[in-house]
Amino acid sequence: MAEQANSSGLEDEFATLHEFVKAAKMKLSPERWDYVVGAAETETTLKRNRYAIDSMAFRPRVLRDISAIQCTAPVMGKKARLPVMLAPVGGLERLDPDGAAAAAKGAGLFGVPQMLSSVSAPGLEATAKASSGRKFFQLYRRGNDQATDEIVDRAVDAGFEAFCYTIDSAFYGRRERDISRRVSNRSIIDDGGDYRQQSLSWSEVKRYKDKHGHKLPLILKGIQTGEDAAIACDHGVDGIYVTNHGGRQLDHVRGTLDTLPEVVDAVRGRAQVIIDGGFYRGTDIVKALALGADTVAIGRLYLYGLAAASSMGVARVLEILEHEIKTCLGLLGLDGFAGIDKSFVHPAPSLTMPHVHSAFPLLNLADEGYGGR
Ligand SMILES: Cc1cc2nc3c(=O)[nH]c(=O)nc-3n(C[C@H](O)[C@H](O)[C@H](O)COP(=O)(O)O)c2cc1C
């Protein structure tokens, strides 16, 4: 496939990813900025995501013909322009008036799938209509089985290609940036007091697979151990999504790149492995693929694009990411993802103080408040 041209039209305005972080911070109110960049309690989990990525060095190979590099890869069984998708994010309407529809447009324009959050406006059907790009649907399960079944049917009708349960949110993480402002986001995942999230168990996974598995593949988002990955595969789950919710749920867990190898070992090719958490640069994504992930989801990174420049901002973030990935692959002596494996990476001490924006050293972290207020 010939390389696709950039179509965002924002090449001059945004030449590097950190420019999007700056522009987003300029546009967002302090409350909304904190909603995006914040994490739970001490924010150690968020920092560990970056630390794990920064603690991996490359082992480049040389003198291989890399004159034609292909960055495409399958995502959930179909070719995508990058092995990347947009992570599900609630409340996108806080960042752009068109919310999830604008994000869908940007992802579709570029050519990667979007996973739509069940708590992002304008909702399932309107978001599906906004773009012809591929879409997966993520649900915080509320209500009874019938309510879930209705949502699955709506997702099928609207053309979604996969269904995802987020399973790490039985309790709402204590995000102190929001709590200290007395801002409540609980409604986003609260289930009206019937505690459906807390009573979720493997029996619902079995019920879904029996009833809907033939219509819509199932992804479980929130797997953090090889043990649970193995149980999920035994239940026929199609996608194992390794995540700690960008550090927003349980504090003090491992960085996701540290978790990945045991999950890949447990899955043994039985399901697609998706990962997210701190993947903000092309090199980050290549490291995850080297360690066995099939797809990397980006969260905050595309939120900066969306907040800064709506759907075209999302597309431009992806274009820059593609450029970084292509540069990385070429300098590793790879002409695509087909030949990548763990021989291309090696543990190495991190040289960076991990931080939500430590991947962007051109930001003046201390003086301009990119971490704080
Ligand atoms: C503002 C915000 C809202 C989020 N909302 C959801 C959500 O509705 N459903 C969900 O499964 N995960 C949600 N997440 C978690 C993301 O899907 C993803 O796991 C996380 O952002 C990845 O980390 P990263 O932002 O460092 O890339 C949210 C994350 C952020 C930053």
Written description of the protein model:
- It contains 14 helices and 12 strands.
- By secondary structure, the protein is α/β, with parallel strands linked by helices.
- It has one domain: Aldolase class I (TIM Barrel, Alpha-Beta Barrel).
- An 8-stranded parallel beta sheet has the order 4-11-10-9-8-7-6-5. Strands 1-12 form a two-stranded antiparallel ribbon. A two-stranded antiparallel sheet has the order 2-3.
- The chain is globular.
- The N and C termini lie far apart (45 Å).
- The structure holds flavin mononucleotide.
Nutshell version of this structure?
By secondary structure, this protein is of the alpha/beta class. The protein is built from 14 helices and 12 strands.
What is the helix tally? 14
What is the molecular shape? globular
Report the end-to-end length measured between terminal Cα atoms.
Answer: 45 Å
Beta-strand proportion: 5-15%
**CATH homologous superfamily designation:** Aldolase class I
Number of domains: 1
Calculate the mean pLDDT score and round it: 94
Main β-sheet, spatial strand arrangement: 4-11-10-9-8-7-6-5
Main structural class? alpha/beta
Largest sheet: 8 strands, parallel
Say which molecules are bound, naming each kind only once.
flavin mononucleotide
Determine and state the CATH class.
Alpha Beta
Model regions low in confidence, pLDDT < 50 over at least 5 residues: none
Q: Residue share in helices?
A: 25-40%
Number of strands: 12
Radius of gyration: 19 Å
What series of H and E elements makes up the topology? Answer: HHHEEEEHEHEHEHHHEHEHEHEHEH
CATH topology: TIM Barrel
CATH architecture: Alpha-Beta Barrel
